[in-house]
Amino acid sequence: MWLGTIALSSTVAVMQGQAPAARASQQPAAQNVDAISAGQPNLYNATGANGATPNQDSFKGSIVNGKNTGTVIDLSLDEVIQRGLRQNLGIILQGSSVQAANGQRLQDLQRLLPTINAGGSIEVEQVNLAAFGFKFNGLKPIVGPFQVIDFRAYLTQSLFNLNSLENYIAARHNFAAQKLTAEDARDLVVLTVGNAYLVCVADTARIEAVNAELKTSKLTLDQAVAGHDAGTNPRLDVLRAQVDYQTEQQTLISTTNQLAKDKIALARAIGLPLDQRFALTDTVPYKVLDNVDPETAFAAALKVRKDLQASEEQVRSAEASKKAAKADMLPTASFSGDYGDIGETLGHSHGTFSATGSVTVPILQMDKNRGEQQSADASLQQAKDRLADQAQQVNADIRSNILDIQSAAKLVEAAKSNVDLATEALAESQQRFHAGVADNLPVSQAQTQFEQANDQYISALYQHNVAKLSLARALGVAQSNYKDYLGGK
């Protein structure tokens, strides 16, 4: 069974947060990007603060690459995912966060390294000694003008500063966390783009199904008109058939419009020009995923989930920040020196130097130090709590997705059986109407049941495939193994 053979109009409506535009009996099944991403950890910014940009909405956008080709291009699931991994805004913003975190790390590192500056100066002076109270009989109070040339290099070096060292360690762990978060963002792109592609596939298939249903309604309408003209059918049969036919026309208009809108959403996520026409080349087969043990899957996810590893790095960063707050109470030692050449001219100059060692001891800043330590303690506890909760969220996501897969698989089987039964019932009611045994009320009812069965079948197919893709994300292998999960294992 192929997802492309039948479609789901209610899927599209729910993706946009709207009520289903087609029959009220349809069962909304699709999950939008926000719902799929729910439960995923927020990304970190360069300072390690939680909830900073890029956020979940960033993964719906992209940076457009290229221009409209003027032709219809074919896009496979692999191609849209690769485009998303290159152009998706969430990926790009996370790369900027990594760069910012590395910049902060380098700044903190410099505080531990020697700093050398060089400079030169030429100074011309004329001094009035009388203005400074120097008066000598027989001597002019005006001295100069004269010049002093000085070329000098300056060196400063921190000899002992535990606070700066721990701050650098914290920045280094934060940088590592940003890199891991950037890797995890690639899984979110696969989930977001993959879901958007599946929705468009469902839309396309739904249009094909509605077209087929439209032909069936037209056939029934023609039969009713012919029977009425022959005097064997009442006008009511014609009116009923005409209402069914026009309803299918309305559904086709709505579904076609929704496909166009969902293609725009897909193009937004992968950096495609919005006026570029494209066709989907892949349909997703229904294949049952082998039973997955939740405990084994959770244990595997703990080892590979990059967002969990990023949170662990954030805990280490918070631990280093706590040590830095305590170290702010300790003495610091530093060295500074300079060497240069000074004189009236370059030919009349001499080398000079100075060297200074200093020790600074903080005194009377207990409240400041106590406040810093309390803030660091709170940040560390938050990081630990966030990590613990995040691990449990991963566990919950895995278990929920496994349940969804199992439930959707059963729904697919039941819905497929309903489709077969509804098809048989529709055919029989059409034959009875054509033979003049009954009016077309049973035909209208049977057609409604057939449409509902089709909608429910595709709803189950969609849920099954999205649940498998979400499971791959929950396990931390969406980027590398999404084909295995969508195609079955």
Using brief descriptors, characterize the structure shown.
elongated, 489 residues, disordered N terminus, 4-stranded antiparallel β-sheet, alpha+beta, Outer membrane efflux proteins (OEP), 11 helices
CATH topology: Outer membrane efflux proteins (OEP)
Mean pLDDT: 84
Tell me roughly what share of residues is in helical segments. Answer: 55-70%
CATH superfamily: Outer membrane efflux proteins (OEP)
End-to-end separation: 16 Å
Ranges with pLDDT <50 over ≥5 residues? 1-53
Approximate shape = elongated
- In what order do the strands lie side by side in the largest sheet? 2-3-5-6
Task: Explain this structure.
It is a single chain. Helices cover 61% and strands 13% of the residues. It has 489 residues and is of the alpha+beta class. It has a 4-stranded antiparallel beta sheet with strand order 2-3-5-6, with no helix packed on it. The chain is elongated and about 145 Å long. It starts with 8 loop residues before the first helix and ends with a helix.
Structure summary:
Helices cover 61% and strands 13% of the residues.
Give the helix/strand layout.
Layout: H1 9-15, H2 33-37, E1 73-75, H3 77-87, H4 89-110, E2 115-128, E3 142-160, H5 162-230, H6 235-270, E4 278-280, H7 294-304, H8 306-327, E5 332-345, E6 348-360, H9 366-434, H10 441-475, H11 478-487
Parallel strand pairs: 1-4
Antiparallel strand pairs: 2-3, 3-5, 5-6
